[in-house]
Amino acid sequence: MAVTRADKEAELQQLETAFKGCDSAILVDYKGMNVPQVTELRRQLRTAKASYKVVKNTIARRALKGTSFEALEKFFEGTTAVAYTSTDPVALAKTLTTFGKTAPTLQIKAAVVQGRAVKPAEVAELAALPGKPELYARLLGVLQAPMVQIVTVLAATPRSLMNVLAAAEKKRSES
Questions:
Q1: What is the distance between the alpha carbons of residues 64 and 75, in angstroms, rounded to a whole number?
Q2: Please, where are the H alpha helices in the chain?
């Protein structure tokens, strides 16, 4: 079935909307992957609140115009798919690099993370970072540490007094 001009324009509009609605995108070369692998990748990306779309290179280049993803234009060659998200770029990078270990034919071409162009090696470094929930937990721990230390110091004096009184009571009861 031939792709009509209207179909191409609809795909262009859809890609433009996707690129304007997200802040991070990673281009991958999916050549050599079979359908079950691509389906599994899509499922994992949905879990990470990301999207995956196989694109036509010329349409994708047109959709990039006027967005923060224009740096990716030269990478739209050969078999190309775009994985994009507006929530957590670390989760997207982790999902793609982890999946890349099980499907070595999946190659990361380039990426733009929050408006900044990054190389494939930097995507692997990004994947090594902890996710947002873990970073929030660490930040909360750092913010709570001074308060916990103050409470511990303030509670030490009454606790020490109680220990001395308990020892004195025990000594009196023994004698």
A1: 12
A2: 5-20, 35-47, 57-64, 89-102, 120-128, 132-174
Q: What CA–CA distance (Å, rounded) separates 114 from 78?
A: 25
CA distances from 143 to 65, 78, 140, 152, 154 (A): 43, 49, 5, 15, 18
d(CA 26, CA 109): 8
Give φ, ψ of 131 to 5 degrees: -75, 175
What is the rounded distance in angstroms from the CA atom of residue 168 to the CA atom of residue 76? 81
For residue 51, the 8-state DSSP code is E
Q: Return the structure tokens found at 161.
A: 């007094």
* 23-54 pLDDT per residue, tens: 899 999 999 899 999 999 999 999 989 999 99
Stated pTM of the model: 0.73
Residues with Cβ < 8 Å from 12, sequence gap 6 or more?
59, 62, 63
Q: Hey, what amino acid is at 128? A: A
> Residue 91 contacts by C-beta under 8 Å, 6 or more apart in sequence?
48, 49, 50, 85, 131, 132
Q: What is the pLDDT of residues 1-15, one digit of tens each?
A: 577 888 889 888 998
Look up residue 91 and give its two tokens: 């989760």
